[in-house]
Amino acid sequence: MERTLVLLKPDAVQRGLVGAIVSRFENKGLKLVGLRMEVFGRDVLERHYAAHAQRPFFNNLVEFMGSGPVVAIALAGKDAIAVTRGLMGATNAREAAPGTIRGDYGMSFSNNLVHGSDSAEAAATELEIFFGGQTIEWERSDLEWRYSVKEELA
């Protein structure tokens, strides 16, 4: 099972969308293996967004992400990265399809509610930054109702 990181940004938390957004991932069939809510320090956020350090929006992004609580979620499932990114929708929420998190709840390019890892390498790095390898191993009791265990998980 693939693992990925999703961040519920300060705008999602301030708007009271945490439960609604987490339920989207769980209802799809992804397994919650880590959950952490914190106002993350600049050092953590700068490490997370290091790839954007030379871009003009870097400081605004780090300040926004440090402006309030963020919920970090570790999710597991088959093709979890692609599935979470599909559920989130286009980065510019005004262009995101209805039925996606950003399409249903967002209107902004910058305040776009969620971040999700975009590759297996990014997921590994981001999960280490936000969870330090401290995620939970457990089995869903409904696994065989969510996947064809013989075909998809063999």
TrEMBL record:
Gene3D superfamilies membership: Nucleoside diphosphate kinase-like domain (3.30.70.141)
GO cellular component, one term: cytoplasm
Domain Nucleoside diphosphate kinase-like per the UniProt entry, residue ranges: 1-138
PROSITE patterns, per database record: NDPK_LIKE
Residues engaged in binding ATP: K9, F57, R85, T91, R102, N112
GO biological process: CTP biosynthetic process; GTP biosynthetic process; UTP biosynthetic process
Cofactor: Mg(2+)
EC number per UniProt: 2.7.4.6
Localisation per UniProt entry: Cytoplasm
Superkingdom of the organism of origin: Bacteria
Keywords (A to Z) from UniProt: ATP-binding, Cytoplasm, Kinase, Magnesium, Metal-binding, Nucleotide metabolism, Nucleotide-binding, Phosphoprotein, Transferase
Matching Pfam families: NDK (PF00334)
SMART domains cross-referenced by the UniProt entry: NDK (SM00562)
Reaction(s) this enzyme catalyzes, per UniProt: a ribonucleoside 5'-diphosphate + ATP = a ribonucleoside 5'-triphosphate + ADP; a 2'-deoxyribonucleoside 5'-diphosphate + ATP = a 2'-deoxyribonucleoside 5'-triphosphate + ADP
One GO molecular-function entry: metal ion binding
Active site residues according to the UniProt entry: H115 (pros-phosphohistidine intermediate)
Summary of the function given for this chain in its UniProt record: Major role in the synthesis of nucleoside triphosphates other than ATP. The ATP gamma phosphate is transferred to the NDP beta phosphate via a ping-pong mechanism, using a phosphorylated active-site intermediate.
Subunit field text: Homotetramer.
NCBIfam families in UniProt: PRK00668.1
Sequence similarity: Belongs to the NDK family.
UniProt-recorded name of the protein: Nucleoside diphosphate kinase
Organism: Rohdeia mirabilis
